[in-house]
Write a structure and sequence with these properties.
about 425 residues; mainly alpha; binds carboxymethyl coenzyme *A; globular; two-stranded antiparallel sheet; single chain; 3-stranded antiparallel β-sheet; Citrate Synthase, domain 1; 2 domains
Length: about 425
């Protein structure tokens, strides 16, 4: 009997089965042979919310939730946040290796020279209501891009894929900034290709009447680090959505709109926005114990706390605290930081949080930094989406090139009515 295998005895039939174990997994399809009768379809595994199901083999990012480890392509997140740039990290995620100097130059040049949007996109954004949520505008505008680049549907063509990757990484900050300018009624600010990726984003967000916007170097670097921290996170909800939509061979704009929509939810990328609202609602340190009690009563969740995978500390949260100090040296301290710090201190001593292994996640402090940098709260999930774009694209491309992947199509356990005959309306009770 091979050592790397699982012996299963089906007590319904007394039959024994040998199922190979590879990389700590058994293949769900190997369960199909286990049948109670000849017309049985075979055994399935039932795993709502994919709590214990690997949907792919991936080489993009690695998380050890117990140790609080996150690596992109093998490189620790701490080293990338310290020494890399967002665009270099994006290259790494997409290509698997760090670029040479000339590869990086070419990559940055190509991203920088795809930042402009077709003028019709402006009209499109103009059509949104003045108080439309920027994430809603972002999701729609990303989807709309597919209509401007019909060649994007040629997903098997490497050159087409590369072009859409340039465009998506380059244009997401422009779309995000345009969505913001629309909500505040300011004229759209066009990209300035003399500036860095994040310097230009700050320019498109905040440029007023000055002829040339000069981004603050510390803030531009802080934003760059925040984008690095958000760039990939294995098979999270939005990445799974990207892969799932992409598995039907939809173009990458449509797939990424699906991913961004998944990110919008308050349990995922919308959490940073909710953290700020929560801190404002708490208002002062004295109100924290009462708020913690509401969390323990199950009335509310402590936003920015907890993670499906991290059951120790989210390593991104640790780096963010350092970035926060650098930002506050420029912007002045965000008064909400004091409430957040105290909330964290109290929660981490409380048995409710300790026993459930609930620690601050990436979103707990990111919003406080964004707010200090003058980003409106509604923009926070959009900022997350800009950072996550290279990860979504790397995972999408990996999925397309993976010979084992097919259209994503989970099974179900049917719990509805057995067959019954249609009843005409006058005969219904
Ligand atoms: N506040 C209070 N209780 C919580 C929280 C929280 N933030 N998170 C989990 N719990 C409790 C939950 O009530 C449950 O308790 P019990 O066993 O008594 O029923 C237990 O902890 C396990 O929770 P779960 O919902 O089964 O855990 P999950 O893995 O399905 O959820 C999560 C993970 C991130 C959705 C959840 O922790 C949460 O809702 N956190 C707040 C939202 C948030 O900060 N999201 C951002 C995640 S990090 C950024 C990203 O990658 O999206």
């Amino acid at each position: 009997m091979p050592k790397d295998s699982l012996t299963i005895t089906d007590n319904r039939t007394g039959q024994r089965y040998e199922v190979p174990i590879q990389d700590g997994t058994i293949r769900a399809m190997d369960l199909r042979q286990i049948k109670a009768s000849a017309d049985d379809l075979g055994l399935m595994s039932y795993d709502p919310a994919y709590m214990n199901t690997a949907s792919c083999r991936s080489a993009v990012s690695y998380i050890d939730g117990d140790q609080g480890i996150l690596r992109y392509r093998g490189y620790p997140i701490e080293q990338l946040a310290e020494q890399s740039t967002f665009l270099e990290t994006a290259y790494l995620l997409l290509h698997g290796e760090l670029p040479s100097a000339s590869e990086l130059d070419g990559w940055v040049y190509n991203i920088t020279h795809h930042t402009i949007l077709h003028e019709n996109i402006k009209k499109f954004i103009d059509g949104f209501h003045h108080d439309a949520h920027p994430m809603g505008m972002f999701v729609s505008a990303v989807a709309a891009l597919s209509t401007f680049y019909p060649a994007a549907k040629h997903i098997a063509d490497e050159t087409s894929r590369r072009d859409q990757i340039f465009r998506l990484i380059a244009k997401t900050p422009t779309l995000a900034a345009f969505a913001h300018r629309h909500s505040v009624g300011m004229p759209y600010a066009y990209p300035d290709n003399d500036l860095s990726y994040t310097g230009n984003f700050l320019n498109m967000m905040f440029k007023a009447t000055e002829v040339k916007y000069q981004p603050n170097a510390v803030l531009a670097r802080a934003l760059d680090v925040l984008f690095i921290l958000h760039a990939d996170h294995e098979q999270n909800c939005s990445t799974s959505a990207m892969r799932s939509v992409g598995s039907s061979h939809a173009d990458p704009y449509s797939a990424m709109a699906g991913a961004a929509a998944a990110l919008y939810g308050p349990l995922h990328g919308g959490a940073n926005e909710e953290v700020l609202r929560m801190l404002r609602e708490i208002g002062s340190k004295e109100n924290i114990p009462a708020y913690i009690q509401r969390v323990k009563n199950g009335e509310v969740r402590l936003m920015g706390f907890g993670h499906r995978i991290y059951k120790n500390y989210d390593p991104r949260a640790r780096i963010i605290k350092r970035v926060a100090d650098e930002v506050f040296d420029v912007t002045g301290r965000n008064p909400l930081l004091e409430i957040a710090g105290e909330l964290e201190r109290i929660a981490l001593q409380d048995d409710y949080f300790i026993s459930r292994k609930l620690y601050p996640n990436v979103d707990f402090y990111s919003g406080i930094i964004y707010q200090a940098m003058r980003f409106p709260v509604e923009m926070f999930p959009v900022l997350f989406a800009i950072g996550r774009t290279p990860g979504w694209l790397a995972q999408w491309q990996e999925m397309l090139l993976d010979k084992e992947q097919k259209i994503a199509r989970p099974r179900q356990v049917y719990i509805g009515s057995p067959q019954r005959d249609y009843v005409s309306i006058e005969k219904r009770a």
